[in-house]
UniProtKB/TrEMBL annotation:
SMART domains: RUN
Gene3D superfamilies to which the protein is assigned, alphabetical: 1.20.58.900
Keywords, sorted A to Z: Coiled coil, Phosphoprotein
Skewed-composition ranges (Polar residues): 173-187
Function of the protein: May play a role as p53/TP53 inhibitor and thus may have oncogenic activity.
Phosphoprotein as UniProt keyword: yes
Protein name: RUN domain-containing protein 1
A Pfam family recorded for this sequence: RUNDC1
Domain (RUN) ranges: 288-469
Keyword Phosphoprotein appears in the UniProt entry: yes
Length: 480
C-alpha cells in the first residue's frame, strides 16, 4: 500500500519531487536492513562469548577433576605399596609447612615481590635474612670462646702463684735469724707467729675474690667496650692524614695502564691486539711490555689495594684484654699485603675443595667440561683456579707475596678477567669491611674508579709469562 500510494503521489507531483521521495524510501530500507544485520551480528558475538566462557569453566572443572583423580590415584598407589615416594600433594603440603615456618623464623616477607624477583634475587634475600641470624650467633660464640681462653689463662696464672714459695708468715720461724749472736731469747719486738691454717684460709679467700673480680671485669669489658682478644675498634688505629690521600696512587695506576695500553697496541697493531711471547724467547728486563706490567702496573695496583688495608691483631695479651680500652697507648696496625686478601678470599670460598675435586681435576687434565651443556667458566671459578695455580707454583719455591701478586695480575690479563676478578674481591663484604679502614680508597669508592681505569686494557689480549719469578728455579730443579 505504501508503494502504491507513493506511485499515486508521484503521478500527481512533479518529477523532481517523485525522484526525491523514491530515494528516501530506498535509503530507509537500506538502514533497516543494516540494523537487522547488526542486531544479528551482535547476538552472534554475545553467544560466542558466552560459549567461550562456558567452555573455559568446563575446562577448569575438568582440570580440577583430573588433579583430584591423580592425587587419589597416587595416594591409593602409595597406600598399596606400589608407589615408593610420597604423593605429590603430600610433598607440596609438607614443603609449604616448612617454607612458611622458615619465613616466620627468618622474618622475611617474600609473598609481595615473589613474582617480580628473579631466582638470584630471591636467593640473595634469603642469604641476607640467614646472615642476620647466624652472624650474631657466630660473634657471640667467638666471644664466649675468647672469654673461656682468657679465664683458663687466669686460672693457670693463679695456680702458678699458689705453687710458688709461700709467704714468710707461713714459715716455721727458721728463716728468721736472731738479731744478736749468742742469744737464744727473742727480741721483744719480734713478729708474732701466725696460725698456718688461718693464713691458708685467708689466702684462698683472697685468691677466689681476685679470680671472680677479674672474670667479671673481663666479661664487662668485652661486652661493653668490645675489647676482647684480637678485637680492637678501628677508631683506635692511628690515622695519618697524609696517608689518607689516594690521589697520587690513582694517578700512578692510570699512568701505568696507559703505558701498557700503548705498548700492547703498538706491538701488534692488528684488530685483535695480540701480544705474543714464545717460550723460547728470553723474557726479563729487556721485554718492555713484560717489565711494564710486572714492575709498574702490578705495583701501582698493589699500592692502591693496600691503601687503608690492615690485618686485625690476634696477639693481644689475654691478661691485658679486659682493660685494653683503658690503656693510654695506641696499638699499631699490622700491615697486610693485597695478595693475602686474595688468599683469604680463596679460603673463604673453599677454593681448595673446589679445585681439588676429582671432577675438576679430570676436567683440567683432559680438557673436558663438568656437566652437560656448553662450557661456561664463571669469573669466580677462574679466580679460584688462578689463585690455586699461583699458590702451587710459587709456594714450593718460597716466593714472596710480591711475586705471587704479579703472577696473578699476569694471569688475569692473559684471560681478560682482571676487572672481573677485582670486582669479585671488592664485592666480598666479609673480607673488605674487617680489613679496610673507613678512610681507605676501597671503603670510600668501592674501587670503582680503578676498575674503570683498568677497563681501558680489558680489550687487549695478552700472553704474558706467569712463572717468570720461578722459571729459573724450575729449570735448575729439572737439570738435577
Amino acid at each position: 500500500p505504501t508503494l502504491s500510494s507513493a506511485k499515486v503521489q508521484a503521478s500527481v507531483l512533479n518529477k523532481p519531487a517523485a525522484a526525491s521521495l523514491h530515494e528516501n524510501i530506498i535509503y530507509s530500507g537500506r538502514r533497516l536492513i543494516r540494523s537487522g544485520f547488526a542486531y544479528a551480528n551482535w547476538g552472534s558475538e554475545r553467544e560466542k562469548r558466552e560459549r567461550l566462557e562456558a567452555q573455559r569453566e568446563k575446562q577448569k572443572d575438568l582440570i580440577f577433576q583430573l588433579k583430584t583423580q591423580l592425587d587419589d590415584l597416587e595416594r591409593f598407589a602409595y597406600q598399596e605399596g606400589s608407589y615408593d615416594s610420597l604423593p605429590q600433594s603430600v610433598v607440596m603440603e609438607r614443603q609449604k609447612v616448612i617454607i612458611d615456618e622458615l619465613i616466620k623464623k627468618l622474618d622475611v616477607n617474600l609473598n609481595e615481590d615473589i613474582g617480580n624477583l628473579s631466582p638470584e634475587e630471591l636467593r640473595q634475600r634469603v642469604d641476607a635474612a640467614i646472615a642476620q641470624i647466624v652472624n650474631p650467633a657466630r660473634v657471640k660464640e667467638q666471644l664466649v670462646e675468647q672469654l673461656k681462653t682468657q679465664i683458663r689463662d687466669l686460672e693457670m696464672f693463679i695456680n702458678f702463684i699458689q705453687d710458688e714459695v709461700g709467704n714468710p708468715l707461713l714459715s716455721d720461724g727458721r728463716s728468721q735469724q736472731p738479731r744478736a749472736a749468742g742469744t737464744n731469747t727473742r727480741s721483744p719486738g719480734a713478729k708474732k707467729k701466725v696460725d698456718p691454717e688461718q693464713a691458708q684460709k685467708m689466702r684462698e679467700t683472697g685468691l677466689q675474690l681476685i679470680q671472680k673480680a677479674l672474670a667479671v671485669l673481663q666479661i664487662f669489658a668485652a661486652s661493653q667496650f668490645g675489647c676482647a682478644t684480637g678485637h680492637v675498634p678501628q677508631s683506635m688505629w692511628p690515622q695519618d692524614p697524609c696517608g689518607q690521600d689516594y690521589g697520587p696512587l690513582l694517578q700512578r695506576l692510570e699512568a701505568a695502564v696507559e703505558k701498557v695500553r700503548v705498548l700492547g697496541s703498538h706491538r701488534h697493531p692488528s684488530v685483535e691486539h695480540v701480544v705474543n711471547y714464545t717460550s723460547s724467547s728470553t723474557l726479563g728486563a729487556r721485554d718492555e711490555l713484560t717489565t711494564s706490567v710486572r714492575k709498574e702496573l702490578a705495583f701501582a695496583l698493589k699500592d692502591l689495594l693496600a691503601h687503608g688495608l690492615f690485618s686485625p691483631s690476634q696477639t693481644m695479651s689475654v691478661v691485658l684484654a679486659p682493660i685494653s680500652c683503658l690503656l693510654p697507648h695506641r696499638p699499631v696496625a699490622q700491615t697486610m699485603h693485597p695478595w693475602e686478601l686474595f688468599v683469604k678470599y680463596y679460603h673463604s670460598k673453599n677454593g681448595k675443595a673446589f679445585v681439588e675435586s676429582p671432577a675438576r681435576q679430570l676436567s683440567q687434565s683432559f680438557g673436558l667440561h663438568v656437566g652437560s651443556g656448553p662450557v661456561t667458566v664463571t669469573p669466580k671459578q677462574s679466580l679460584l683456579w688462578a689463585i690455586h695455580t699461583v699458590l702451587k707454583e710459587h709456594g714450593r719455591y718460597k716466593r714472596g707475596p710480591d711475586s705471587e701478586f704479579k703472577a696473578l695480575v699476569c694471569m688475569a690479563l692473559n684471560e681478560q678477567r682482571l676487572v672481573s676478578w677485582l670486582n669479585l674481591l671488592c664485592k666480598s663484604g666479609t673480607l673488605i669491611h674487617p680489613h679496610y679502614h673507613s678512610w681507605s680508597y676501597m671503603a670510600q669508592t668501592g674501587f670503582e674508579g680503578a676498575l674503570r681505569i683498568l677497563g681501558r686494557i680489558s680489550h687487549l689480549r695478552f700472553n704474558l709469562p706467569v712463572d717468570l719469578a720461578v722459571r729459573q728455579l724450575k729449570n735448575i730443579k729439572d737439570a738435577f
